[in-house]
Amino acid sequence: MEEKKKTPGNIRLLAIETSCDETAAAVVSEGRLILTSVVASQVDLHAQYGGVFPEMASRQHILTIFPVVEQALSQAHLDLKELDAIAVTRGPGLAGSLVVGVNMAKALALGSGLPLVGVNHLEGHIYSAWLDPDPDNAGGQYAPPILPLVALIVSGGHSLLILMREHITYERLGGTLDDAAGEAFDKVARLLDLPYPGGPSIEKAAQKGNQSAFHFPRARLDGSWDFSFSGLKTAVLRQVQALKSDGRSIPVEDLAASFQAAVVEVLVEKTFMAAEQYGARNILVAGGVSANLALRRAFTSQERFQVFIPPLRLCTDNAAMIAAAGYQRFTRGQTDELDFDALPNWPLA
Ligand code: KG4
Ligand code: ZN
């Protein structure tokens, strides 16, 4: 990282995100105000395979990246030369997907002379909570989270508990030992024959189910901040097999509700315990799984902590969150050289 101090003013970043199966670009002012956020989802393309097909994702990013970036700039009525920097997701993610966004950002930086800021995708999920959730709020009423905070990042690839005492500094308290929370949702959806993507399908089925119908195990892993969801997934599988071998029908909605309740309970309990133990002022929940309404309700139906959970459109992958994180790096003088590479396995802490 090259150190270059810049005095904050009305700083505007263009950000690009292509770590998985969304091609996204956004223009954000002051790391807080979304001027435009364009997300081209490939979900329909991958649905036929029941999961993200990496080569197809990469090819689709190549096709979509130019129009997506152009749209983000034109809707913001801004030219590259009116911006201050370009942020891009450097990792973690699919190598062939990341490289499309990184190369696009490099080309734009080279052509415009704007500085380049490489952002960790998970850091982006965290900073989604700094984005003003009200798109019309130009008056600056939104109060972002207060540090120190405990962040729970739950996505398709990660379940992480992070202590954040200062900006862009992350202490890893724990993470999943096996399946990520989103991965567990996706796998259980598949074994219940629910459509891809699994998270929203389970949530929808669970709304009509009884969460006490089955008691699935809660892996509390006392004494550690780690999570484990593979035992829970296996328990659902065994239950389905047992019902099938008895010739009984599969109560998909009850199974989905009981599974979801087990995931939510463990995530919420551990996050509150960590927040208490580390004296957090706030809690932050981010990543695709934080779109889950049962999880959101469990976190917000208490008064011990103020819990920040971004609005649904900012929970799943987008580039506005990358701009928000990029802003924090950029205003601290952290920019990258044009020869930097994508880091598919880049850990947050
Ligand atoms: O953050 P994200 O969009 O992409 C990654 O960085 O992984 O997260 C995607 C994950 C998927 O596993 C998806 O099933 C899950 O988030 N997800 C949900 C919901 N919406 C998305 N899980 C539970 N309930 C939801 N409503
Ligand atoms: Zn993500």
Give a short synopsis of this structure.
The protein is an alpha/beta fold and 349 residues long. 39% of the residues lie in helices and 18% in strands.
Helical coverage, percent range: 25-40%
Report the structural category.
alpha/beta
State the helix count. Answer: 11
Q: Tell me, what's the shape?
A: globular
Reported for the largest beta sheet, the result is: 5 strands, mixed
| Small molecules in complex | 5'-O-[(R)-(carboxyoxy)(hydroxy)phosphoryl]adenosine, zinc ion
Q: Write out the strand line-up for the largest beta sheet, numbering strands in chain order.
A: 4-3-2-5-6
Low-pLDDT segments, ≥5 res: 2-8
Number of strands: 12
Averaged pLDDT, please? 94
**Estimated radius of gyration:** 20 Å
User: DSSP strand (E) fraction?
Assistant: 15-25%
Instruction: Please give the alpha-carbon distance between the first and last residues.
Output: 16 Å
Order of helices and strands: EEEEHHEHEHEEEHHHHEHEHHE
